[in-house]
# Entry
Amino acid sequence: MSTLNDVKRIIRDAQRLVALTWREKRNLLVGIVLATLCTSTLPFVQSYTIGRLLNALVSSSQADRHEVVYTLLSLAVLAGSCYAVANMLQFFLKTVLYKELFHVLTVIILRTTASLDIASHENPERRDLLTKVEENAMWRAPEFMQRLTYLLQNLAEVSIAAVIFLSADKRIGAMIIAAALPRLLLDLSYNNKLWQVETGAAETRRKFWHARWFLVAIEALPEIKLFQNVPFFVGRVDEHLGTIKRRELAVERVNAIGQLLILLVSESVAAFALYAFVRRTLEGTLDVGGLAFLIASCGTFRSSLQSLSQNVGSQFRDGKFVRDMFEAFDLKPLLPTTHSSGRRLAGQIEEIRFDGVWFAYPGTQRWILKDFNLCIKGGSTVGIVAENGSGKSTLAKLLCRMYDPTRGRILVNGVDIREFDLDYWQSKLGVVKQDFLHYQHLDVESAIRLGRVGSCPDNIEAVHFAAQAAEAHAFIEGLPQGYGTTLGSSFKGGVELSGGQYQRLALARVFFRQPEIAILDEPTSAVDSDAEARIYQKILSSLPGCIKIVISHRYYTLRKADRICLLQNGSIVEYGDHEELMRLGGLYAERYTAQAAEYH
# Structure
């Protein structure tokens, strides 16, 4: 019953894929179907014509034998030539279909998966599904569609041959058809087990790709080599691949034994059929041309049946990856509290208020924020300071709506941010994360313009302003091609920047964006102290009217903020400006004094 349900589901998914292909590449699909029907029928036309030709050659009673022979010969040659042309055209169109679908589906898959909320990507079950889709669907789905045309050809050829055999001898025809069924069932079972191996090994494959990354990524390889950990990670790769290989080979061994047994049966039936047809020819109940036609049809039947069996089995396995693809397409955001009503702000942001916010990451029980309350006034600068793991970066994620509060609300001008359209809300934000991206392969100007894609391309002054505000203009001017220099030494003409230089480009993107809310998470962790002081001054002066939320564990960098929040275990334990907190003489004053002594 499970296999039957799988087959029904695959048929439904195949219909969705055909509908998608029909919508995107209708004319191409029609051409493939026509070429496939020609390649299916022309071999039988040629075999039949050759059979009639043989009868004409051995017949001595025909007065116009030469004319008949040459006519039949011409028809046989024409059928063969048409088959060759149709076969070539079919192959070409299928290749085009594969490349077109690969292009279309890759774009759809990446757009769909990247559009899901962060919680979906961090959920283990959804991550396994997305990993299978990302690794397999963009090439398995085009192959699935391509193979459908082969199945159409196989089915047409097998059906025509079956009709021929049943017309010649119902008993023998039934035996040949019956002998074919076990092969189809075995291939279905074999490919189902391979798919189960693929599914069961999804997490192992992810571990393999992570381990492999350490051995090939330029970001990781220097540290791996310096700590002499290459053998360790090679061992991890070897272990993960070995686990997957053993599971796959176990399926292959069982399948090989089953295929051998079925082959013995089908070969015996085929031999019996041929002997029976030859005996009828010797008895005079079947002419030589008819025998030749049956022999040729038998060869086509066996070849097509083998292809049909293999293609059905492969289609069964790949169909499950197509199913995964459509399941990914149908995924909804994991967070249940997303309820945008499309509201917009009437004017500037006057206040952001965290109102009794509690938060625990989905699937966990540990509270990261506990009854968190904070009011941020428009245009102000707020410093969030804490030790690692105290919840300061989680605040940024909530404000960016990567997650929603488990309890409580975040209000902007009195409106819950969940009521704003997500794109609208995030268009107001400018963010520098701790793990900022390098955007290698882009030129420097493009990497800065990513701060607001679609801005006026002639507005180079805004790019220069952003770079100067981020203390990046001077080193950019010194690059081989200036703002046109490609990032990343692995690309022709590219250069590799330092960590501090990449971080300044990340800041430049925020300055170029000119957001209404700037969220800067450890924005100067990779730059020296002198540049850090200048950059913080630019943050205060180059983003007028912007709410600036600066997150850091370095206390002395936030002393110019309007308000400073000291977090501990997900709650605010001290709050005020720098002078107030120093006079308080509490934890902030103690840690500020200790860090100031360390850095100075």
